[in-house]
Amino acid sequence: MTHCHSSAPSVPLNGGRIALVGNPNVGKSILFHRLTGQYVTVSNYPGTTVEVAQGAARAIAGAVVIDTPGIVAFPPRSEDEAVTARVLLRDPLQSVLQVGDAKNLRRTLHLTVQLAEMRVPQALALNMMDEARARGLNPDCSRLAGLLGIPVACTVATSGAGMDSLIDAVKHAAISKVVLAYPPAIEEFLASAEPLLPEARISARALGLLWLAGDQQADAWLREKAPVENLSQLEALRAALTGRLEEPAYLVIQRVREAFVNRLAAEVMDVSRAAGPTFGMRLGHLTTHPVWGVPILAAILYGLYWFIGVFGAGTLVGLLENGLFGRVINPWVVEQVQRLIPLRFFSDLLVGEYGLWTMGATYAFALLLPVVITFFLAFGALEDSGYLPRMAVLTNRLFSLIGLNGQAVLPMVLGLGCVTMATMTTRILNSRRERLLVTILLALAVPCSAQLGVVMGMLAGVSFGAALIWGGVILAVLLLVGWLSARLMPGKRAPLVVELPPLRLPVAGNVLVKTAARLEWYIKEAVPLFMAGTLLLFVLDKLNLLPGLIHATEPVITGWLGLPPQAASAFLLGLIRRDFAATGLFHMQSHGLLSPLQVVVSIVTITLFIPCIASIFMIVKERGLRMAAGMVVFIFPFALLVGGLLMRVLRLFGWS
Amino acid sequence: MPGEDGFITCAVCGFSFDPSAHEGCRACPLHSGCVTACCPNCGATNINPRRSGLARLVERLFARKTYETPFDEER
Ligand SMILES: Nc1nc2c(ncn2[C@@H]2O[C@H](COP(=O)(O)OP(=O)(O)O)[C@@H](O)[C@H]2O)c(=O)[nH]1
Ligand SMILES: [Mg+2]
Ligand SMILES: [Zn+2]
Q1: Are A408 and B43 within 8 A, CB to CB?
Q2: What is the pLDDT of residues A48-83, one digit of tens each?
Q3: A372 CA distance to ligand 3 centroid (A)?
């Protein structure tokens, strides 16, 4: 470096100030230190507890750099974020340097577009280029610069790569040429609102949009600066606009930005593929094609069916359950236990009908494990191939047709959602009714992927037709429920943001590592619960409550669902986890106790049950006991209703 | 060498995030220390292999091969 004798430059108080902004954890602070060196003051931003660091830029004479805390969204949600908004609104700035994560280009560009609307001179550091490249993403910085009309530098903050071009970019910070066109209602609002807004450091258009989106900082600033009569006029304008829009204004605004950002990102990413599309790229393109994507999806689903259902639940389970456990291990264990423990009660506890070994361990290791392992292997391979985000794009089309859209719904629909976590996030929803509804949806329709995998695998082990019908019914319920939720809660979801990684062949080692991690998680979480469930059945049986229970549920199990009475104990296990019920039913089926119709009906019913005990606890914790109870009261009859109706419909079509 | 951020990439939406900041088990009342992480962008459950002993074992078995993983920056 050639700046070796830059002695401590005095910080010019009102010199050119350059604010670093960006999402958290994108490398702002590291770049800040690279730009400023050691002469840094850290102080609380006036009126807040948030620390802001300032320092003189080494390579740009007279400039002071400010490191702001990360901003996740405009309007800001936390004090940290609000400070960034306040810096932009209130501090005299020479320019803004946005630091963005090259791995998450769309997210980065969302903020870029908002800064562009503010019409302050800006530059963009596309940081973490090393990680982006390692993931096969290679955004073209100079092309991006051309499209945005601002200087863009590609950097690796940790190694210092690209610092020269960054300094150059900061020196040439420019007002972007990007102007987004919003729907007419919003444009008209902006046209009439702009003359009413006081002179600000950001453009009137950006200020108007911020205020429209409900930004607290913009609101506070306006209340301070704008004359009262202007304020009331603005509020009237906003109220009129809200009446004209079907969705909240912030969502409409976000959609427009989303569309722009998607186009921008696609163009910037395309250039790196200028060498001509390879086979993988062409295939990748086909997977999201509205027409060709569907047969590809069908082929992949059939592959999953074959691997998990036919191979896992069929061949492997057959070898383990009938062969290893049924012929070799269990007869020996039973004999030993009965010889060593003469007391009937204790030997039954281990090797009786509901014995911890003969039922608990045998189910867990001979029935569940092969299915779970094949499922995790297949899922890991699918994950590594980069297909899942493409599947998200493909199915998003279908779901947006019925008014569903966005990142909150999609993982839920794909059945990959983390139910307990999602129940947590429903906290942020506004009204009680909305929160309740979302929690019901989650509990009803979203099993975690492992449970879903087992259910699917067990079912596929029965027959392909059964798997198809199950899939169709669950999809229909999800669509119905999703459609209802979209009707009842418009505007509660953000658009789908996905980065499409390159399609590639999964690496065996990688898939195995992930499978091992998932397996450990599954064993820790599910096997103890499975043992506990078995113990519960054992205790009920010994107390002679089980026959009574089976008898009591007979009208529903036998009468309504058309199942043999013994299915009640599988349903009881299903209260703990869905996959346990599936295992119990699978076991019954393989011993000739269930017909194909009965398998489909029972598995559809348990799939719609409350997902697992963990999420019931979560609902109690988050929503309270009363609400959890109410939810169970709704979901149980609903699951049974669907099951019974399905049975009758299938009978009409000649199933038995 | 800094930059060992241990980020994982969401399998559903491609979002990169720090799994330790979004652990699924924070929300789960059953046990702590599980290996799941929930993507902050889309909410999908992801696996954080660094949290699993079994996964580290398998990883060591494959350590001689060079392949790209989001979690091999451990060294
Ligand atoms: N691999 C890599 N890691 C980076 C890069 N820039 C920052 N990091 C890491 O990202 C993390 C967050 O950096 P920090 O500067 O604190 O981000 P801030 O929240 O935006 O201030 C740190 O662990 C850095 O080591 C980069 O260009 N490449
Ligand atoms: Mg920082
Ligand atoms: Zn995600």
Answers
A1: yes
A2: 656 778 888 888 888 889 888 776 666 666 666 777
A3: 23
Report residue B37: phi and psi, to 5°. -135, 140
Q: Is residue A551 a contact partner of residue A566, using CB atoms and an 8 Å limit?
A: no
> A78 Cβ partners below 8 Å, 6+ apart?
A72
Whose Cα sits closest to atom 26 in ligand 1? A128
Contact B45 A416 (CB under 8 A): yes
Q: Is the CB of A125 under 6 A from ligand 1?
A: no
Are B47 and A518 inside 8 Å of each other by CB? yes
Among candidate residues A579, A578, A577, A581, the one with its CA nearest the CA of residue A568:
A581
In 3D space, the residue among A610, A507, A85, A223 whose CA is nearest the CA of residue B67 turns out to be: A507
In the three-class reduction of DSSP (H, G, I as helix; E, B as strand; rest coil), residue A241 is classed as helix
| Whether the predicted pLDDT of A261 surpasses 70 | yes
CB A636 within 8 Å of CB A616 = no
Alpha-carbon gap, residue A65 to A58, rounded angstroms: 10
d(CA A432, CA A629): 16
pLDDT value, residue A3: 36
Please give the distance, rounded to the nearest whole angstrom, from the Cα atom of residue A388 to the centre of ligand 3.
10
Q: How far does A71 lie from chain B, in Å, by closest CA?
A: 14
Contact A566, A432 (CB under 8 A): no
Is it the case that residue A369 has pLDDT exceeding 70?
yes
Q: How far is CA A368 from CA A320, A524, A596, in A?
A: 11, 13, 20
Q: Determine the Cα–Cα distance for residues A392 and A68; give it in Å rounded to an integer.
A: 34
Interface test with B, best of A72, A383, A388, A420 (most B CBs within 10 A): A420
- Distance from A415 to chain B by nearest Cα, in Å? 9
Partners of A15 in the β-ladder: none
Q: Which of A154, A158, A165 to mutate to test the pocket of ligand 1 (most atoms within 8 A of CB)?
A: A158
User: How many H helices and E strands in chain A?
Assistant: 31, 7
Angle at Cα B40 formed by Cα A417 and Cα A297, nearest 5°?
Answer: 45
Q: How many CA atoms lie within 13 A of A140 on its CB side?
A: 17
The per-residue pLDDT for B72 is 34
Tell me the per-residue pLDDT of A266-283, one tens digit each, with 9 for 90 and over: 888 754 444 445 666 677
Q: Which of B18, B45, B67 sits opposite A507 (nearest CB)?
A: B67
Q: With an 8 Å Cβ cutoff, are A509 and B59 in contact?
A: yes
pTM of the model: 0.60
Looking at per-residue confidence, does A479 or A38 come out higher? A479
Q: What is the DSSP string of A287-314?
A: HT-TTTHHHHHHHHHHHHIIIIIIIIII
Q: Hey, are the CB atoms on B9 and A135 less than 8 Å from each other? A: yes
Pairing of β B8-9 and β B16-17: antiparallel
Query: Which residue among B43, B47, B52 places its CB closest to the CB of A411?
Result: B43
Give ipTM to 2 decimals.
0.71
Is A115 within 8 Å of A85 (Cβ atoms)? no
Fill in the amino acid letter for B67: Y
Q: Does residue A100 line the site of ligand 1, with CB under 6 A?
A: no
Structure-token pair, residue B35: 């290996």
Tell me whether residues A514 and B34 touch, CB distance under 8 A.
no
Q: What would the pLDDT profile of A550-575 be if each residue is shown by its tens digit? A: 888 888 888 888 888 888 888 888 87
Q: Which residue has the higher pLDDT, A194 or A471?
A: A194
**Among B15, B62, B67, the residue to mutate for chain A (most A Cβ within 10 A):** B15
> How far, in Å, CA of A27 to CA of A592, rounded?
62
Class of domain A3-171: alpha beta
Farthest CA pair distance, chain B: 38
- Find the closest chain B residue to A621 by CA distance: B29
